[in-house]
Amino acid sequence: MGKNYTIGIIKGDGIGPEIVNETIKVLDALSANMGFNLEYIEMLLGGSAIDKMGVPLPNATIENVKRCDAVLFGAIGGPKWDNLKRELRPESGLLALRKKMGTFANLRPAIVYDELVNASTLKPEIVKGVDIMVVRELTGGIYFGQPRELLEDKAYNTMIYTKDEVRQIAKVAFEIAMKRRKKVCSVDKANVLEVSQFWREEVIRVAKDYPEVKLTHMYVDNASMQLIREPKQFDVILTGNIFGDILSDAASMLSGSIGLLPSASIGHGIGLYEPIHGSAPDIAGQGIANPLATISSASMMFKYALNEEEASIKIDNAIKKSLAQGYRTADLGSFDAKKICSCSEIGDIIANYVSK
Description:
- There is one protein chain.
- The chain is built from twelve helices and 14 strands.
- With 356 residues, the chain is an alpha/beta fold.
- The chain folds into two domains: 1-103 and 261-356, 3-Layer(aba) Sandwich (Isopropylmalate Dehydrogenase), CATH 3.40.718; 121-255, Isopropylmalate Dehydrogenase (3-Layer(aba) Sandwich), CATH 3.40.718.
- The longest helix has 19 residues, at 16-34.
- 40% of the residues lie in helices and 19% in strands.
- Strands 2-1-3-12-11-4-5-10-8-9 form a ten-stranded mixed beta sheet, with helices on both faces. A two-stranded antiparallel sheet has the order 6-7. It has a two-stranded parallel ribbon with strand order 13-14.
- α1 links the parallel β1 (4-12) and β2 (37-43).
- The chain is globular, with a radius of gyration of 20 Å.
């Protein structure tokens, strides 16, 4: 009898349903090949939840998440909901869900595939071999700090980090570094922000428990420059919520397309696995979205949530094989392309590879 896993499915808005459907296609092929059983529980979040339930995060979604081993998520948001009050917008639902799930660590790999080295806007010699893991603190910092207020003549937000928040995210980064090249670069703005001074001091304390890992520090403005100038100097980047949000998107473009890269939000319980890109409402329904980032997120789900390393490797190898064979989606252009494929065609190709 194979293992049984319950996977929460949040398709979301825009291209979300398309890319998640293709990922489910891959999961079904993989589970049939490897002999485990996947049960899916579909849930609402974001704009689709607002349209059907009046709120971006329904209580039913919160309760159903508790029944899952992991949650696979597409994307949310779009112009349709941009004029709502902040607390009713799709993004507020996602922030609240992450908070309730206790997913305080966002893992965002930035990998340049050899087959796509020419797809990057940077020179091949700069990006070839890039393999970075950005570890972003997810539930603290300026996005959640109080007090915050929007007034007629001013507005303000508060950046706050506690000792426990910094230490727990730092431990995640050091543990990951121990399995990689044993280098952590902590990114802050300690020269002007007290909260960053505090962050740096706590990271240094955690580093004492990992003597094999080399710790360096970099101001966020310099880090953004260094990511473009010499990205291969980085192994694990550890940083706070707002800096991580910006730097991980910058790092993603080293690969040539934001449609390639996955993420995992992990922490105290169930993890949330999602592509780093948005809902792209301008191309929704056209069948041209790139599902590879979502499929890669499923690979991270097998690795970090289900401890199915072989399944994770099988998905990664299938993606590499599809790229090596010249299959590309429209966002990648014609770089060494054998065929420009639709979203569904890429799903079929990857599903076929993992079924063997």
